[in-house]
Amino acid sequence: MVSRHTGRRRLxxxxxxxLAVTVGAGSLAAAPVAATEAxxxxxGASGLLPMVPGATPASAGSEGFLVRVPHxxxxxxLRWVAYDGGATRDKLAYTIEGIADxxxxxxxxxxxxxxxxxxxxxxxxxxxxxxxPDGPDSxxxxxxxxxxxxxxASKLWLQTGDTExxxxxxxxxxxxxxxxxxxxxxxxxxxxxxxxxxxxxxLIDLTDAGLTYPYPQQARxxxxxxxxxxxxxxxxxxxxxxAVVRDxxxxxxxxxxxxxxxxxxxxxxxxxxxxVTYGTTAVHLGTGExxxxxxRAGAAFTVPDGTAQIVQxxxxxxxxxxxxxxxxxxxxxxxxxxxxxxxxxxALHDVDNDGAADLLxxxxxxxxxxxxPEDGRPRARIGGGWQIYDKIExxxxxxxxxxxxxxxxxxxxxxxxxLWLYSGREDGGFTRRVRIGGGWQxxxxxxxGSDLTGDGRPxxxxxxxxxxLWLYxxxxxxxxxxxxxxxxxHGWDIYNQLSAVGNLAGGPAGDLVARxxxxxLWLYxxxxxxxxxxxxRIGGGWQVYAQLVGAGxxxxxxxxxxxxxxxxxKTVYLYSGTGDWRRPFAARVVxxxxxxxxxxxxx
Length: 603
Hints:
Number of strands: 52
Distance between the termini: 54 Å
Radius of gyration: 27 Å
Shape: elongated
């Protein structure tokens, strides 16, 4: 019988599947002021990668990295993102009585219901755990490199996709042990306990399945990178921690003091060339030079060959998100932002929760389509029957209970003036509509997606036929998505286009752009209390567009952007946000999202 490893636990509480380093897991550590700042590495040609709100790193592989993303259901979702961009891959893991471990580019899922499977997310290839000739039951026992481990009645076994299970040699008789966890490309780490109560950290060679115990008794949070071992131990003289690095090939041993730490603390370290990393800091083994890598750092993982680390954190210049730390040409660590942290603004138009903005278009037959820019995929059909509406607006996650990762909603107004709510689904579709209420025919324009009130939820604004601007503050509830309307302005009947663009210019709240009847576009910066500053002129000539759509962070640079549709040429233009209210948009470029298709309404 083949079974998963026993023990009730949800995925979030699973044994940590850290590679060589997990910096400050569970909390953020501040950088010490004494450290010199590491340089920012040059951005690669692939640009920044898409990321959904709430994504957290789970592993770092040779070809890409894994993140856990919010998911509405009994499963957890792991997403693999290639370093050079392109399509992502998702893996659902059954989390009730189930396990999901990561190792490099590999995900291992195990449950009584579905068995145990290892998937190489970089290629999509997989293999299943086999029974071992060691007692009646076989249990999943961890993963390292491209191997998984199987617990039999008396032995621990190593299995790969192209070899039969092999018994691990060197395991003490009657020893108990935790799940095997990743070390580097060719090693796994294993904590064992003897019947007498002794505990040791072992190293499994994935090539010959041999287990040795090279770490001393006092070692904590072990690391392996090629021939080098590292660990944390208490410095009893100073009541702080120190890192110890030992080269197995030469026997050289280096002690790295870690001032500012406390003996007994659970500090994770890592190795990057001749540097020890911990928290937000890197220290050179030979010179003692100290570099500040980031301002704050959370979970981090080392790629299997030890040449880079993937870290979640923040940087004063590059912002907040997921970073790659690797050695520069001078041999010192350099930091490069891979992906900005997802925000409600970035996800404003991410209908299918893949981190990329979707532009919606309705054709003359009433079919609604979605399309993302530069994703290499054709447009996707959402469904027909949308011709009954004279207004369709993507408004962000106004009723987010039960929806993962800020999956946005639509509001649609029918010919009788009734406004309907469609909640987004992860597959890019929408739930059955829910009636919001009638009387909305009084409005000539409505738009949503900007958080105008500073509560973290996007709101809706509408202009009535008398030119009064009204605020509908969102509640987060599907049954009652808006509070009672509040008057916030008048004289808005001079505009024939209105678009909520999220936080366009770095202010405290979401912003609006409005086009007057002469084709001049104006910017209104949100104050965070539902009101706006005095308008600022962006420029003229915008009358050539049928619709302006605030689309969130389309180009993944952390700033809100704008789509503009010119139906006569079937062209969609992208105006990338600059973050500067005096010049909020860069020069337009043609987008491949929905371009070449004929639509009578876009959102």
